[in-house]
Amino acid sequence: MSGTVYTVPPIPPDAEHTTYVEAGALSFGVEYRLLNDADLAANYTGAAMEEIQANIKGDTVEDNGVSIHVVGEDGHEYLRFDMFEREPHYHYIDRSGERQTIMDYDRVALGDMLPWTLRQLRTRLDQMLTHAGGEALVPRLNRARLDASLVEVERLASAAQVALAGEASGLVS
Questions:
Q1: Phi-psi region for residue 111, left (φ > 0), alpha (ψ -120 to 50) or beta?
Q2: Bridge pairing between strands 100-104 and 89-93
């Protein structure tokens, strides 16, 4: 598998900006995220920050967008889809908490990331959860409940994207 492997956990979701949708053995968090150098510095120090800086090759980080967090009933976030404006990507977050793999998203080949993300959650969730160490959750997934929850996730994420687009164009303050 390709991607960038980190031995540090991702920055946790911001509770003030995340709305959770329950889906049985899972919940989906929809969050507007602003990621910048200050956020990195607030969450990582020492060797962890050195690892991140080495992987981003010292570039300045300044990105934002809607994220969808896939959290098990055990409280562990297994998957994250960051539909960022500049560098969209998704995460496999290992159950051990000692490793995550970030996969770049190819917007040119795959189009808008939100429909792609929802399609993966509807059709590839079992495989993606298993890859992230969440195979124990798979037998407890209720497809009807997941599908109903994903309708709400799509509504929340779409509304957030519209609000972000308005902010970017100066229409929303």
A1: left
A2: antiparallel
